[in-house]
Specification:
This protein is α+β, with helices and mostly antiparallel strands. It folds into 4 domains: 203 residues, Thrombin, subunit H (Beta Barrel); 33 residues, no CATH class; 94 residues, Roll (Pdz3 Domain), CATH 2.30.42; 86 residues, Roll (Pdz3 Domain), CATH 2.30.42. It has 11 helices and 28 strands. Strands 22, 23, 24, 25, 26, 27 and 28 form a 7-stranded antiparallel sheet that branches.
Length: 509
């Protein structure tokens, strides 16, 4: 390369170096500016434009101060050895040890050494914590709703507020039939309270449960209303909401809220093989609770309408036996004497299919409807009797505090030769009372055994006709068979009460 070009090369090399240093300086001072200027932009993180999800924080913030924990103490009788508690009471579970257990022997000897002279222990009352649950304020002046089973047997009650403060309370009233109870704080104050929802909740609606699970204090869970009208065998008026919000031991008596902060139910029971939450919990609906709570708060007890009948479901075969088009309603198994139903003319064998024009699906619904009326209320019962429908007006009475079901004594069977009804797998005899026949034998493969008929049961009616001797029973069954009836009703009595059983016809065993 010519020497004359050397200054030119040096000049340009110097410019390139200065440019490189300048680039480094720019990168050092403003890397982002450089990247932007050279279009080297990093990709954005993944973001999905999802639907707006409703949160529960606003609801929880408003209603939580109204929710309380309930602690219950009971008076229990314990032995006192010369002023000292029994050693068996020092640790839980030791009183149940076997007689020959080493610890049992040790504590017995320990107790003997503590006593200077043998003496019988004195028994006295001692307060012990026996339960805990949840509850909520329904008034500013301190009325609290909880479950009856939470406070049952308790003598002292303490409510723990959301801020941790404790207030003594007294039991105003409880109702075991609906498992509801009302407490009242002994201390005056202005408490945050909530109200019951006016509208029935719908399946699929959000629900927020707040309570005291396992004694942990205020805990919030959420889910949806899973089902309505659940009958779990807890009482005569079962009509539970099923929810899948997590509910555990200690949540009993706590509220289930909708998104408006209204109480739609009182958490009462769970279905769980393990004892913990599996997503199936049951709550007393607000519609059921409102009237009961009002009575407990104002009167200390619940006053319900009373009909005075023993009822049972109408199955498909029973409906066929009495000529009813469908299997809805409640069949009157017996009418108790001197009751509103008896005075109005309701009879055994009647099918009650509606109350005040509203259809009845079954015995539970009939019980709930009658109980929802006040005593002395006139109600119209739609009765299906002997193939015809009629309306009977009944003035309801007062449901007895402790309603007892009259037991029926089983009469001794008279010593007569039995009569066999081979086609039904039955052996029958006249009863000693002269008013019925007695089942003396029933074959294992008889269809009536599957329906609950047993030896010793008395049959008082067949197809609404009284029977006292086997020959009458055979004649009625023959006539029903000639009339092409699918089944006839047997009115059966035993020590458990009275009920009807459908006997299928034209069926060999």
């Amino acid at each position: 390369m010519p020497s004359s070009s050397t200054p030119f090369i040096k000049k340009h090399m110097r410019n390139l170096m200065l440019g490189a240093f300048g680039l480094i300086a720019v990168v050092g001072l403003s890397g982002q500016t450089l990247l932007s200027s050279t279009n080297l932009v990093m990709a954005d993180p993944v973001f999905v434009e999802g639907p707006i999800v409703i949160g529960f924080a606003d609801v929880v913030e408003k209603v939580t101060p109204a929710v309380v924990s309930v602690r219950v103490k009971s008076s229990v009788e314990v032995a006192d050895f010369n002023g000292q508690a029994s050693p068996f009471d020092l640790l839980p579970g030791f009183r149940d040890l076997p007689e020959d257990h080493p610890f049992n022997r040790f504590f017995r000897e320990f107790g003997e050494r503590k006593q200077e002279s043998p003496s019988r222990p004195e028994h006295h009352k001692r307060k012990r914590a026996t339960g805990q649950g949840s509850g909520f304020f329904i008034s500013e002046d301190g009325y609290i709703v909880t479950n009856s089973h939470v406070v049952d047997g308790g003598s002292d009650f303490t409510v723990v507020l959301d801020d941790g403060s404790e207030i003594e309370a007294e039991l105003i009233g409880q109702d075991s039939r609906t498992d509801l109870a009302v407490l009242k704080t002994k201390k005056d104050g202005e408490f945050t309270y909530v109200k019951f929802a006016d509208k029935d909740s719908r399946v699929g609606e959000w629900v927020v449960a707040i309570g005291n699970p396992f004694g942990l204090g205020g805990t919030v869970t959420a889910g949806i209303v899973s089902a309505r009208g659940r009958d779990i065998g807890a009482g005569p008026y079962d009509d539970f909401l099923q929810i899948d919000a997590a509910v555990n031991k200690g949540n009993s008596g706590g509220p289930a809220f909708n998104l408006n902060g209204e109480v739609i139910g009182i958490n009462t029971a769970i279905f769980s093989p393990s004892g913990g939450n599996v997503g199936i919990a049951f709550a007393i609906p607000a519609a059921t609770a409102k009237n009961v709570i009002e009575d407990l708060r104002d009167k200390g007890k619940v006053v319900r309408g009373y009909l005075g009948v023993q009822i049972q479901p109408i199955t498909r075969d029973i409906a066929d036996s009495i000529g009813l088009a469908d299997s809805e309603g409640a069949l009157v198994a017996s009418t108790q004497s001197e009751t509103p139903a008896a005075k109005a003319g309701v009879k055994s064998g009647d099918a009650i299919v509606a109350v005040n024009g509203e259809k009845i699906s079954g015995p539970k619904e009939l019980s709930r409807k009658i109980a929802s009326f006040r005593p002395d209320t006139d109600v119209d019962l739609t009765i299906f009797r002997q193939g015809k429908t009629e309306i009977i007006t009944v003035k309801l009475g007062v449901l007895p505090e402790s309603q007892r079901q009259a037991s029926l004594r089983e009469a001794p069977i008279v010593q007569q030769q039995p009569t066999f009804l081979d086609e039904f797998g039955l052996e029958i005899k006249p009863a000693e009372d002269g008013k019925s026949i007695v089942v003396t034998k029933i074959n294992p493969d008889s269809p009536l055994r599957d329906k609950g008929l047993r030896n010793g049961d008395k049959i008082t009616e067949i197809d609404s006709k009284a029977v006292s001797v086997p020959s009458e029973a055979k004649k009625i069954l023959e006539e029903a068979t000639k009339s092409n009836k699918k089944a006839v009703l047997l009115r059966v009595e035993n020590q458990r009460g009275t009920r009807f059983i459908a006997m299928p016809l034209n069926k060999k065993t």
